[in-house]
Amino acid sequence: MAVQHPLELANGCYDDDGHSLRTGTLWSCVAHIITAVIGSGVLSLAWSTAQLGWIAGPVSLLCFAIVTYISAFLLSDCYRSPDPITGTRNYSYMHAVRVNLGKTQTWFCGLLQYVSMYGTAIAYVITTSTSMRAIQRSNCYHREGHKASCEYGDTIYMLLFGAVQILMSQIPDFHNMEWLSVIAAIMSFTYSFIGFGLGVAQVIENGTIKGSIAGVSAATTASKLWLAFEALGDIAFAYPYSIILLEIQPLATITPGNLLTGFGFFEPYWLIDLANACIVLHLVGGYQIYSQPVFAFVEGWSSRKFPSSGFVNNFHSFKLPLIPPLHINLFRLCFRTVYVASTTVIAMAFPYFNQVLGVLGALNFWPLAIYFPVEMYFVQKKIGAWTRKWIVLRTFSFVCLLITIAGLLGSIEGLVSAKLG
């Protein structure tokens, strides 16, 4: 057994936040992006559209897509500073904020970004367990008929997924998980196309497109309003690209919260099983995409804070027969295990797919996708106050803030109601 300092094992340089500097390829970057973009939020879009109706639903999807594009455009101009073409590269969102907006806002940004990533990991635990349970239910319905009572818990599936993630979390960083992102990207496309195909098949079978302009009816006007707000939060969660950009560069009227687990579909059961299996495999990689920046930050900060600590900094190399040498860092092993365990426990306490997604989406959408990109763009382009571009972007930011507040309130109300109910 040999002991090495992490710098001897590093595959590249690291920035001040502990983020690995880029050593990947165009294809690894594309795989990471697809894995991050096509996430579990996609599965809730049918439910969100059903709540908002056939006019407000698609319009909301289009508007959020446009907002995400604008956000990515603004952020791309902040990749280098001070000049967007020849300036020094900012290898992380926090780097860009620090250079353009200062230390105080960097702390605020970092808190939101890492809480958002942590929350996304929780959402992925919930989604995965729901899909694993759906496979069991699908097989039950196929064996015993569609009216059978096929109810199963999800705790065991969350624990299984957590165990897998404890192992996957020992992958050092982004450029060591290209293979995982490639598999996850393929899986995300697969289940998305299966869901689309099943939806089209259901419409053909029904002979009509169900739903209404007003969306799903509710017992009271207040309930309808809360559901519409929650739907906005869910849509916001489905457009998470901005928070990770710099780090990697319907059917029946009562639509289920998760398109592929709510059982608007029963047959062919094997196709339902395949789609849900693809979701599980995708989210194994997706969990890591959103967790690796958190790992890098905490471990980088700890290494700088305790430079003489062997527990934090030393790697122990083990050579076992037939496999490459294993490099174990005790701090990494303990921290990442506790991190995964905590996301699993919280998911078990709040296993509410739509509500959790809505809270997370609304909580981070405005500050991370709108506020910081707009403010950095002002600094980068030296845009003066009360100019036309300043007024347009300020108005854009304010409108997005109002939508975010509505989505957050609706999702919190839904989460509390689900927990109490």
Automatic annotation (TrEMBL):
Keyword terms, alphabetized: Amino-acid transport, Auxin signaling pathway, Membrane, Symport, Transmembrane, Transmembrane helix, Transport
Transmembrane segments: 25-47, 54-75, 105-127, 148-167, 179-201, 333-353, 359-379, 391-412
Membrane topology: Multi-pass membrane protein
Domain Amino acid transporter transmembrane: 23-249, 255-415
UniProt KW Iron-sulfur keyword: no
Role this protein plays: Carrier protein involved in proton-driven auxin influx. Mediates the formation of auxin gradient from developing leaves (site of auxin biosynthesis) to tips by contributing to the loading of auxin in vascular tissues and facilitating acropetal (base to tip) auxin transport within inner tissues of the root apex, and basipetal (tip to base) auxin transport within outer tissues of the root apex. May be involved in lateral roots and nodules formation.
Family from the record: Belongs to the amino acid/polyamine transporter 2 family. Amino acid/auxin permease (AAAP) (TC 2.A.18.1) subfamily.
Protein name from the UniProt record: Amino acid permease 7 isoform X3
Annotated organism of origin: Populus alba x Populus x berolinensis
Upper classification of the organism: Eukaryota, Viridiplantae, Streptophyta, Embryophyta, Tracheophyta
